[in-house]
Specification:
Layout (H helix, E strand, L loop, with lengths): L1 H21 L11 E4 L4 E3 L2 E4 L4 E3 L5 E3 L1 E5 L5 E5 L1 H7 L7 E3 L4 E3 L9 E6 L14 E6 L2 H14 L9 E2 L2 E4 L9 E12 L3 E6 L5 E8 L5 E8 L8 E3 L3 E3 L4 E8 L9 E8 L6 E10 L11
Parallel strand pairs: 10-11
Antiparallel strand pairs: 1-6, 2-3, 4-5, 6-7, 8-9, 12-13, 13-20, 14-22, 15-21, 16-20, 16-22, 17-18, 17-19, 17-21
Length: 303
Amino acid sequence: MKNSWKSFVCGALTMVMLMALMVPAMAAGTFNGRASFGQVGVEVFSRKKYAPGVSMTAASGERVPVTVTYTDAKGGTTHYIAAEKVAELFDMSEAPSWDSANNCVNFIAEDKGDVHFVKVDLDKGETVPTDLPTHTITVTHGSKENMDKLKAQELAAMPTAPKLGTTAGPIKEVSAKTVDRTSMGFSLYNARFESMTGVSEGIYCADGEYTVITVKNESSCDVKWQVDRPYTIRAGGESQRFTTIKIPAGQTAERAFYVTDGADPLKQNLSIGLTAVKDDAVTKVVISAETTQASPVIGKGTK
C-alpha cells in the first residue's frame, strides 16, 4: 500500500510540474514563453544520469518527459526536472510527497503518517511480532527474567556470517575470501575503540573497487555488528541495511563490499556500528578497512 501511494504521488508531482509549464496561460498571462520537453539530459558529478530525450512512466501509465526547458520571451532558457528524479539523484531517503493543503511539493515530509503501537507482555506469554507495518513502535513489558530470556533468544538467532549478495544502493556485500588483497591499501589500520555505549565509524568505498572491513572483538562478550548505507538526505537515521551479525568474544570477522563502477559519490558510504550485547559490558574492538588501489589514470592527476 505504501509503495502504491508513493507511485501515485510521484505521478501526480510529475504531472503537476508538466501541466504548470504546458499551460502558462493559466497563470494570468504572467509567462509568455514556450515549453519544450526532453531537450536536455542530466549529469551529476559529470556523470550522465539521463540522456536528452529520456522519458519516464507516470502513474497513469503514460510516458512523460524527465526534463522540461522553458524559453522566455527574450530567448533565455530555464531547465526543470521531475521532483521525484531530484530526490533519486541526490539520494533522499524517500520520494517527495504532495502537500495538498499548501499546494506544495514536500521533500522529506515531517508527517510520516499514523504511528502504530504494539504492546507485548512477555509475562503473559506474548511474543514479539516479526511482520509489522511501517511506522510501528513495539513496547515490550515483562520481568527481568523474561526480558533476559528474550535477549538471549534474539542473540541466539543472530547469524555469525552475513547474507552475501545483499545490496544497498550501488553497494553489494560479497565474500571476503574471493577478494584479491595484493593491491589493497588501508584507509583505517588497527584502530582501537572502547566505549560503554558502542562504537560507530564511517567507511568510504571507492566505486569499481572492493572494500574489506575487519573487526576483532576484544570485549568480554559477543558484539553485534551492524552495517548500513545511510541516505545522504534524510530526516533521521534512515538507511539501507545489510545483515546484522554477532562476533563472539575474542574472535575476528571480515566483511567485503563491492561498489558498482560509476556509482554516485553520494552513495558510496558505509556506516558500521558495534555494540557489546551485555548492558554492563565495555565494547572493545579493533577495526581495519582496506580498499583496492586502482592504477592512476593519465590526465587525471593533480597539479
